[in-house]
Design goal:
AspAT_Ic; L-aspartate:2-oxoglutarate aminotransferase activity; Aspartate aminotransferase; about 40% helix; Aspartate Aminotransferase, domain 1; about 80 residues; transferase; aminotransferase
């Protein structure tokens, strides 16, 4: 697991760095920063999650489907 963490850590650091540079303080998104884990949460403005996931997919960034953390995969704000 330590080797796996060494491989993933720079990738997470790069993602968080870009989020901070491009989105911090904009009010259009928020996110969690992993502390030893391998997952982060990214929250968009209401109504934008599915479109954001699609645009990220096209850019080669993988997210779980919008609404995945909600019952039946339906986010009431999207």
């Amino acid at each position: 697991m330590a080797r796996h963490a060494r491989l993933l850590r720079p990738k997470f650091e790069q993602v968080i760095s870009i989020f901070r540079e491009e989105l911090d303080g904009s009010g259009i998104a928020s996110w969690t920063e992993p502390r030893g884990g391998y997952f982060l949460s990214f929250d968009t403005m209401p109504g934008c999650a599915a479109r954001t996931v699609e645009l990220c997919r096209r850019a080669g960034v993988k997210f779980t489907p919008a609404g995945s953390t909600w019952p039946y995969g339906r986010d009431p704000q999207d």
